[in-house]
Amino acid sequence: MQSYAKNFEKVFGRDDRGESEASDSSVVEFGTGPLGLEISWTAPPVVAAVVPGGAAEVLKLQPGHVVLEINGTQVAEALPEMEVEELMQQRPLRLRLGKVQDSDRTQMLRRWDLVRQQGVVQVPQAMPKDLAQELLAFMHEEYHRCLAAVLKDSTRVPELFSNVMMPRAGADAPTTRWDMRLPMEPVVYRALGALLGHENLEGLGAGFEDLAGKDAELWELGVTVTEPGAVPQAVHCDAPARCLYTAFVALQPISYEMGPTHFWPGTNTVVAHRRFEAAPREFLEPLQPVAPLLDAGDAVLYDSRVLHCGAGNASQQRRALMYVTFRAESADAESLGVRQHSIRPDLKGRVRLRQFRP
After folding, report:
1. Who contacts 22 (Cβ-Cβ below 8 Å, separation ≥6)?
2. Which residue range or ranges hold the PDZ domain (predicted)?
3. CB within 8 Å of 283: residues ≥ 6 apart
């Protein structure tokens, strides 16, 4: 009987929680066998189901237990999927458990966990359609003003425009992809207010606050445009580590022919970057990208680490996206090697998320 117990413990794990079920947290350890449970990867993760007769039931786990740590790694905030996968494959596997503490606010904010786990989430109707159309008209006017300005003084190019990947189909081809920094004109200010100022916990401002903090710095503000004939970008990330969060906001309806941005969910992690750099094609081939087809005013919010690319524009229409990027409160983007800082010089370091939040 004793040898059977030792073998069971080796394969299925042992219970380290002690006799008290009333403690704030407890630790269970799994061996080499199947876990016998299903986990809902919210923040923090929650045990969703327990297999009858499996290791988890033997260890007295129940649906509703919250997972606080996995092998010493805290998971109160959601982790990227590939990082979770590596943790859950470790053996022995030690889980620190606590009781579920939920609220309406927690439930509503869990959508932002998708950005932590998958790297991207869609936010419908982030801005009223009529405001998106007004901003689009302003963008066209501002583009011509900026072109006139740089023709007079070429040193103003870095002030008004940002570098963009794959601006032309070839060395002698016309520019079909460009990036313009926006001034804080009234229509731009109203657009930021509409995007960020809602008290609604499902709104874009709540997402930025949850992910980057209320004191997050406005890091980028502009529009990125692809003209008909633009070629696809190479797959890339915007930052190597957690520091920036960006929203792309459609200024007109985007069809597949117009070249929506493609994202590879779950690649917002060092593990994914390492595998991608070692063998890009082999890494991406089994993964399924997503390419949200946005209506005017819809947005996607993404972690700057997630792999993505702008697709080619095979339509006869210009595709325009407003972009808004915030630097997380605790992050030093420049020390992490982030050189892109697409914002007008007069706005740099002067605007914080809290200025738009209720």
Report:
1. none
2. 24-103
3. 272, 275, 276
pLDDT at position 98, please? 87
Residue 13: band (very low, low, confident or very high) from pLDDT cuts 50, 70, 90: very low
* Among the listed residues 193, 202, 185, the one whose alpha carbon sits nearest the alpha carbon of residue 125: 202
Looking at residue 84, the DSSP 8-state letter turns out to be H
Q: Supply the CATH classification number for the domain 2-102.
A: 2.30.42.10
> Cα(285)–Cα(281) distance, rounded to whole angstroms?
6
Q: Are 290 and 296 in contact (CB under 8 A)?
A: no
In Å, how far are 118, 191, 241, 274, 289 from 266, measured between CA atoms?
4, 30, 14, 13, 10
What pLDDT does 21 receive? 38
C-alpha dihedral over 263, 268, 274, 277, to 10 degrees? 30
CATH code of 113-355, in short, is 2.60.120.620
Amino acid at 6: K
Which residue ranges make up each domain of the chain?
A: 2-102, 113-355
Mean pLDDT taken over the chain:
87
pLDDT digits (tens, 9 = 90+) for 209-223: 999 999 999 999 999
